[in-house]
Protein: Acyl-CoA dehydrogenase
Amino acid sequence: MTFSLKPSYEDPRTARLVERLRDHLDGELADYERERGITPASRLTRADLEPVWRRSRELGFYGIHLPEEYGGQNLSFTQLGALKEEIGASGRVLAHSVLGDMGGPLRAGDILKHATPHQLETYLLPLLRGERACCFSLTETDAGSDVRAMRTVAVPDGDGYRLTGHKVFSSAGPFADFAIVVARMAGTGEEEGDKPRFSAFLVDLDSPGCRVEDGATPMSGEHIESDIVLDDCHVPAANLLGEEGQGMRIALGRVTTNRLLHCPTVLGATRRAIALTLERARTRKVAGGQPLLMLQAIQHKLADMATGFYAARSMTYASLAALDEGREVHTEAFMCKLFVAESAFRILDEAVQIHGKEGLTQGNEIEYLFRKIRMFRVLTGTSEIQRNGIAKLLAFHH
Structure:
């Protein structure tokens, strides 16, 4: 894999898809955002998003990674990674809705294999068509890194279950129709002295006893998070996903793959930051009228930024290729998540430094990217959790 800030691909199919996606992101989607005045801090509504989902579906991007029977193109992980990198590199606010990351097929893809015909018909196929949206409700205030500490409880009740609890950081919650909620089965857990059992449920967000509240605003400033508050909310038995007690396996089922697939999006955003910084260094004049780029201190910073990016990107695509060959990549997924998160943060820190006052100003894209990238050292497993995973696998499997 060679270094480039606008990668090309030898595989003709990947090259074609990347080209088409770039055209859509830089053309039609850019125009759409401009017309509507959409910024990263906008409160997005269904009216903003549904046209993007539907258009993406028409163009074949929405759920493109899925098998053909679900309207996808059965992409390899490497091909999906290349597309996710372009999403990150585009600088478009609504890019997360093009492949279906935000409440769409990428969020729900893993659960298709656990769904009953009724669940497919009512929830998941409409979701793949861009007619419905979902959020994933796993995290709680005191159950983040240790999700098994969750307190949301499901009590069997006649022809269904009653759920009570408070979920936080449910991304896409503000515009979702239903949530995939993981809850602890009543009568199991430490107080009872046995192992907690968890189940997963499809919960309609307009059900009695279910409230969607404004979630905390993350440091990226985006309004995409919700709290899902359940108060004796009745969920029919038909909405149990998979079997009782299988909820955590379903929720964390493809955690290695997902950990790896977050990396290309972040790499894309990092690539954009390097390109913007290079442009800034070329055009910004310093004392004596020469461009910033003529200073050796700046040249060295840019050299380190590009090198760190190349290393992180090479690792990620090597792991995606191994996954495509059917190999186990548990250790590598931890390593990629750790290295990409830490490298991207260092690169963005230097990007802010080189942009000077502009890099500190809200409304400047580099300032926004810095905040967005900083979050990745915590989201989907902190850097410390990744190190724990690596150390454990080294100690016990090598």
Residues 284 and 290 are 8 Å apart (CA to CA). The beta strands are 134-137, 153-157, 160-171, 178-185, 198-204, 210-214, 225-236, 240-241.
